Amino acid sequence: MKTKLVMATNNANKLREAREILAPLGIEVLSQREAGADCDPDENGATFAENAKIKAQAVFDAVGLPTIADDSGLCVDALGGAPGVHSARYAPKGQECGKLLGELKDVPESERGAAFRCTICYMDGNGHTEFTGSCEGRIGYEQRGSNGFGYDPVFMVGDKTMAELSADEKNSISHRGAALRALYRFLKERNGD
After folding, report:
1. Residue 70's domain is classified under what CATH number?
2. What is the pTM (predicted TM-score) of this model?
């Protein structure tokens, strides 16, 4: 029988990434909707870790199953780390990249450094544990690619944007992928595999 783990999201892209990385452990990752958690907690934390814990706690309280929640965002050097924890609310959906490119239009290449950062909170009856990951890169000058979401079309890793990478390539370097691999190691060790 597969172990069930609830991910505090209904985002298909995040679910796919978690399912792909955790599949070798025989873990079935359910969305919060699939698990019956009808909650949308107020993510009012000041850090990615605080927001991840808020979401994990709400879903764990609703369903009583081991739960993971992530909070992640883009931290741009030239913007003092913004949009950071406000990445999802930085601009109307679908307009994030345009707004970011507009704010950086006069910023030289040497100052366009950025990083995607992610914290995953794992919560069960024994408490919670946090896992982090980051992906360093820079902000490009135009949107390119169609394999990503959010800021992927402007986030450059080498000479490609995240949105130009395949799912496997992205999983191998992404901030969420790194945090999920840390979670994978924790769960594997915990289960004695």
Report:
1. 3.90.950.10
2. 0.88
